[in-house]
Fold:
Amino acid sequence: MPQSADEHSTIDAVGSVDRAGNGIVGRERERGILRAQLRSALDGVGCLVLVSGEAGIGKTTLIDDLAGAAAARGCLVLWGHAYDLSVTPAYGPWVELLRRYPAGVERLPEPPAFVEDARSATAAGSSEALFFAAAAFFDDVARVQPLLLILEDLHWADQGSRDFLRFLARQLADRRILVAATYRSDELHRRHPLYTLLPVLVRESGVERLDVQRLDSDGSRALIASRYAIGGDDAARLERYIQDHAEGNPLFALELLRSLAEGGVLRLSGDTWSLGDTDRVRLPTLLLQVIETRLDRLGDETLSLLRVAAIIGQEVPLDLWQQVTGASDDALVKAIERGQASHILEEAASGTAIRFQHALIREALYESVISLRRRVWHRKVAETLAALPAPVPDIVAHHFQQAGDVRAVSWLLEAARRARMVYATTTATDRLETALGLDEQQGGASGLRGWLLAGLAGLGEMFARFDERRRMLDEARDIAVRANDATLLGLVEWYRAFIETHFDGSTAEALGSARDRIQRLPSGERARLYGFLYGIVGTPIGVDSVDMTCEIIVFQGQSGQYREALAAIERVYAESPILS
Ligand SMILES: Nc1ncnc2c1ncn2[C@@H]1O[C@H](COP(=O)(O)OP(=O)(O)OP(=O)(O)O)[C@@H](O)[C@H]1O
Ligand SMILES: [Mg+2]
Structure:
């Protein structure tokens, strides 16, 4: 989490005090707009502000500045991030944001149980119900304390997170809630889902949009002056050099300045800086390359440790980093110190992890590893994560996938199951499709193709794509028969019966016989299948026939077979020791 400039003054690589925090320069207009939105939210008229702009232009800096102002006015500020070169589970940024909600503070309501426990999310019954519950929670909090909710880097967020943002945005106008979301405009191509969502948000919720532009020459001058005390002719030359090369992008400007300082062209003498001959400086023209030249100065040992860190993620838990690299405490501490001094790393809020100062720094490190080696490290990270007590399947799968390791398939299947538990259908579909592709690449080595196909067919929208889903189920059935897998066969028949009954509106007989087949499975297998169907391991109600019968009853009700539905309800009551 970014910190304020005051907390953050550090000694930089060449020994001077470099105000490396977010001491913001310029941006009066943008800050004015954000302050006005904040005041309005404090008065009970919240809204969604979308802050866009190219990479490194200063979106986070602006939001961090807003966060400081909001906290000073008594707001509770919560941050959630989406990440590059990584995946998060469904609703990742929102879950992160909710997990940062302070526990046990007097008068503030308790967070909803589904933040920590996916089962209670499943119990909500639908994504709409989940969204209502989450929005109601934010409203409850805001009645006690106004809220600033920050979603960083929305262009990397999952569909479920965008859906909830859209849902929440519609309700802000009479609440003390300001939602601020950032995204990189240079990442939004026409087919990007956020690209199509933006006009919808504007239409539905009257969103405030703020497109952050490059700094003008005054802005660049102020940025330089805020970091490097330099005067006279040198100052003018430095400004020209920076403006010519960085063209008003603050991250680019700062990286160039640090490059010049580390290369000795920008030198500290006494209290002020002086500038050598910039004509003999050969710095690359692209930001990522400028970052690379700085990274090269770190020395081999530190650099290779940082490369592994970049493969782990934007935030790097220290124990994981050490387990994967096998590095000594000393070597890690040295790498961290060097990384911090060069403004590459910062300590994460938890104190047990470090994070990259900027996503582009991680990207430069990541890209500098040759792909063969990257795969080796990804596999190592995946294996280490998989051995932890409660691994996140999406993340383990991501690392196995990047390693081209077929073990990704079963983790993707598990990730899909969990996404389904929280009604994140798009994420579940994504995971299953990725798994199918990977399994195909590996010549079917996972042995899970039948389950993946059945899963996809079962996820399809209730009344859509019948033919495609039938084809998937046909193939899954063939696989089940060939492999003599009664459990998979039970699942396939259940889904098929569901599709067929929906399709031609016939009675629920096919569903009944599929249910009976499933009930004849050995109990362990039945539990496995239920886990797959309902996203819950084991049986949800105790009498395992009840759930499937209930689904049949719901179907009968929906299709107007009321007499049959009522009769079935009577039977459930009569047969269930819990309900009767
Ligand atoms: N107005 C500003 N004043 C001072 N420093 C700034 C300003 N804007 C940006 N910076 C500095 O530039 C760097 C990049 O800014 P920031 O991280 O806010 O960019 P961003 O737009 O969020 O980038 P990304 O799209 O990669 O997330 C940071 O180190 C920040 O401190
Ligand atoms: Mg940012």
